[in-house]
């Protein structure tokens, strides 16, 4: 990637009359040149508005262009300068770096940073409402509608009355009523966030000696104002959050902004409440469930430096922080940090790069660190801090493997198939008798993963993907989990036409819930699966129901695995511990280990000891053995060995090239052309072309090359040259995935 060597001193003013290079938030390799009118002056990083064709777009001044290189008359002019602080030099270098690493066009990376054009200009002052200091009086009827409005106002967003009503989904009369009751104040100001500064001086919990030592180490890393990466490694419940809050406080005390990355932000309401208890205010949030107004206000508050702490999903890494001084990557091992479309990147790894460019501390927290991070610690690149014990002496759950070859499920009273081994059924009964909660974990949405015709053997597949359709019985639908295709559940076989011949094969959580209803009719049960939840608010409510013991038996997918405290949960049954172990995925074993360890960590967090039962047909598998013995080191050792022998990451570097086309023949032709021009070098291993794991996805036929390279080879350069040799025509596309996750 050859961007102008433009990253000189930021302060240098570029006067009107010059020609400037402006990077646009479009998939472009190069900045475009514009003439800067005499009336304007900018610096590098200034966000300007420029014409492009019929449109006007925001762009970032990337540098000065030697006017000899371009004929100035033909140039269009910068239209105006946006009133937002210039993008920092570090941020611009970060964009360039990410583009170079991922082989994405710099403009595409910029688009992630300037994702809210409406935030670039401050809105006009108007009447906005904020939560007043007055508490809700005892005799005030707090209806659901009123509660929603107050909740929104308490989140720190100051909205005009109409917007507040719309975002809360209530009529304006509800809002008016709250103003009259004195619960909302009306002010004339610009709609903005009232992100009050967190109070770093408030005291958190009194830390144990071990926790205090780690907190001290982390805080020192922050105040050193130098680049460092520390792996915060501690079992679930050991106080990692508590401890890194101290590092957050240290950064705030230094006047720096803080970013906390979470893999699934929509579900981290508990985290936000804890933050609020510790720092007295809510943090700013960034995730896909924000309304457009919230996005605009939050983006602006980050750019203006008003939001001091932001908790967000991976995309928040590209927000225009001015004074970022700490990034915490919570659950650093989580696969949700990998972004798979558009710019393909690993947010945990890019957070480390951001820390290096900005010269500050990065904390990676996990109870089951990724093999990469563990090996980086061993190599001396990262430091490590351990929190070995659960806080308050809570013991880790006891884990046992149920060998399904012997412990076979009996039939249901109806004669139907059961998915629960007798010993698991018994354990559930015991748990319920003691008034405690049980969780049945199955990482499979829907009712059944496969629908088969008993008459002709036909399996119902997605018309656009190489994948079976998954039955979702609650919605009477078949769904493709890869492209989102939906169709009503057919009555007869689409292939042979036979009536009532279709059978559901295998279990999904919906089917498991059905079984639970039959076997434990007295138990109050709950299904937790991303697709049966209407939204994040509903998720929060369900989590609360579990915490307050309003349910006895929970059936859930991986959304229950993360971060939540369920004090009454003492039994976890993993219905299919082998799910995820098969398949040619490089990280299959590691991921299964991490996921099951996380799920297991839900059990027995308070005074009540927990136990975990793993149903498996592969009881000898190293992953299951490690879960049972609790010997994580042995597992990591085994995993590192396997990867090293296979010349797999992190012992080599890897990339996937996926060529796709509307039809199979075009895809094959393009793949053959690529194969002919493939680079050759010692230590470079190119496998393929072969059909990609989803050989057809959304109607596109996909062929894949896997590239393994010795770590000292210039992988990006080799790939960029290779890509440049083959012109793509006729709807053929090429995607490059550096450090691919699943294949
Ligand atoms: P982790 O992030 O490692 O899972 P947490 O920080 O969430 O651990 O701590 C687990 C639980 O123990 C939380 O409810 C937390 O408030 C509590 N806890 C941890 N450390 C302390 C402490 N020093 N004093 C009081 N409570 C603590
Ligand atoms: Zn599909």
Automatic annotation (TrEMBL):
Residues 221-387 form the Helicase ATP-binding domain. Its EC number is 5.6.2.4. Binds 2 zinc ions per subunit. Its cofactor is Zn(2+). It is an enzyme of class 5 (isomerase). Pfam families: DEAD, PriA_3primeBD, PriA_C, Zn_ribbon_PriA. Zn(2+) 1 binds at residues 453, 456, 493, 496. Keywords: ATP-binding, DNA replication, DNA-binding, Helicase, Hydrolase, Isomerase, Metal-binding, Nucleotide-binding, Primosome, Zinc. Initiates the restart of stalled replication forks, which reloads the replicative helicase on sites other than the origin of replication. Recognizes and binds to abandoned replication forks and remodels them to uncover a helicase loading site. Promotes assembly of the primosome at these replication forks. Component of the replication restart primosome. Belongs to the helicase family. PriA subfamily. This is Replication restart protein PriA.
């Amino acid at each position: 990637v050859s961007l102008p060597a433009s990253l000189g001193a930021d302060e240098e003013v570029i006067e009107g009359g010059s020609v400037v290079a402006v990077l646009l938030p479009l998939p472009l390799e190069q900045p475009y040149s514009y003439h800067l009118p005499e009336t304007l002056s900018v610096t590098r990083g200034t966000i300007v508005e420029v014409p492009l064709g019929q449109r006007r777009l925001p762009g970032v001044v990337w540098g000065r262009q030697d006017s000899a290189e371009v004929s100035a008359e033909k140039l269009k002019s910068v239209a105006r300068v946006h009133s937002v602080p210039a993008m920092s030099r570090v941020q611009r270098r970060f964009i360039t770096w990410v583009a170079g690493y991922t082989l994405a066009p710099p403009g595409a990376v910029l688009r992630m940073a300037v994702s809210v054009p409406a935030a670039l200009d401050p809105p006009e002052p108007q009447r906005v409402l904020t939560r007043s200091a007055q508490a809700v009086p005892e005799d005030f009827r707090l209806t659901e509608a009123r509660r929603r409005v107050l909740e929104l106002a308490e989140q720190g967003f100051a909205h005009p009355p109409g917007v507040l009503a719309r975002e809360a989904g209530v009529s304006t009369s509800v809002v008016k009523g709250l103003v009259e009751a004195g619960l909302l104040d009306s002010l004339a100001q610009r709609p903005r966030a009232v992100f009050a500064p967190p109070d770093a001086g408030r005291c958190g919990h009194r830390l144990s000696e071990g926790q205090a030592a780690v907190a001290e180490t982390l805080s020192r890393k922050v105040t050193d104002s130098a680049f460092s990466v520390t792996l915060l490694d501690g079992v679930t419940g050991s106080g990692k959050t508590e401890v890194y809050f101290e590092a957050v406080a240290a950064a705030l005390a230094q006047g720096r902004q803080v970013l906390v990355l979470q893999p699934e932000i929509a579900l981290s309401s508990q985290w936000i409440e804890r933050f609020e208890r510790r720092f007295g205010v809510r943090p700013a949030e960034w995730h896909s469930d924000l309304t457009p107004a919230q996005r605009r206000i939050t983006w602006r508050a980050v750019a203006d430096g008003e939001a001091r702490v932001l908790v967000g999903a991976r995309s928040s890494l590209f927000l225009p922080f001015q004074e970022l001084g700490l990034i915490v990557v919570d659950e650093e091992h989580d696969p949700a940090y990998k972004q798979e479309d558009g710019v393909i990147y690993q947010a945990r790894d890019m957070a480390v790069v951001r820390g290096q460019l900005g010269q500050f501390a990065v904390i990676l927290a996990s109870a089951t660190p990724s093999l990469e991070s563990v090996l980086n610690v061993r190599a001396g690149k990262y430091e490590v801090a351990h929190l070995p014990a659960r806080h308050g002496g809570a013991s880790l759950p006891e884990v046992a493997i149920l060998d399904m070859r012997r412990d076979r499920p009996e039939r249901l009273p109806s004669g139907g198939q059961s998915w629960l081994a007798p010993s698991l059924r018994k354990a559930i009964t015991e748990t319920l008798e003691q008034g405690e909660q049980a969780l049945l974990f199955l990482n499979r949405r829907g009712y059944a993963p496969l629908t088969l015709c008993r008459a002709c053997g036909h399996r119902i597949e997605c018309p656009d993907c190489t994948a079976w359709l998954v039955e979702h019985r609650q919605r009477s639908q078949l769904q493709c989990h890869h492209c989102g295709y939906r169709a009503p559940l057919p009555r007869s076989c689409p292939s042979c036409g036979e009536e009532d011949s279709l059978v559901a094969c295998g279990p999904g959580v919906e089917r498991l819930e059905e079984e639970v209803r039959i076997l434990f009719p007295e138990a109050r049960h709950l299904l937790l699966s991303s697709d049966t939840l209407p939204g994040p608010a509903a998720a929060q409510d369900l989590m609360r129901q579990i915490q307050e013991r309003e349910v006895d038996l929970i059936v859930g997918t991986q959304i229950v695995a993360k971060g939540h405290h369920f004090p009454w949960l003492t039994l976890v049954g993993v219905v299919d511990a082998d799910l995820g172990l098969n398949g040619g995925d490089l990280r299959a074993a590691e991921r299964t280990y991490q996921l099951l360890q996380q799920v297991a960590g839900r059990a027995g967090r308070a005074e009540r000891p927990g136990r975990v039962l793993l149903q498996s047909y592969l009881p000898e598998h190293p992953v299951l053995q490690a879960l049972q013995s609790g010997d994580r080191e042995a597992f990591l050792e085994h995993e590192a060995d396997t990867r090293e022998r296979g010349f797999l990451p992190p012992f080599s570097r890897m990339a996937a090239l996926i060529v796709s086309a509307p039809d199979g023949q075009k895809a094959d032709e393009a793949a053959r052309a690529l194969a002919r021009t493939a680079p050759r070098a010692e230590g470079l291993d190119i496998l393929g072309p072969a059909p990609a794991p989803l050989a057809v996805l959304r109607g596109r036929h996909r062929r894949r090359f896997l590239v393994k390279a010795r770590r000292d080879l210039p992988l990006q350069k080799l790939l960029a040259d290779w890509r440049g040799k083959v012109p793509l025509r006729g709807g053929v596309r090429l995607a490059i995935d550096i450090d691919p996750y699943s294949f």
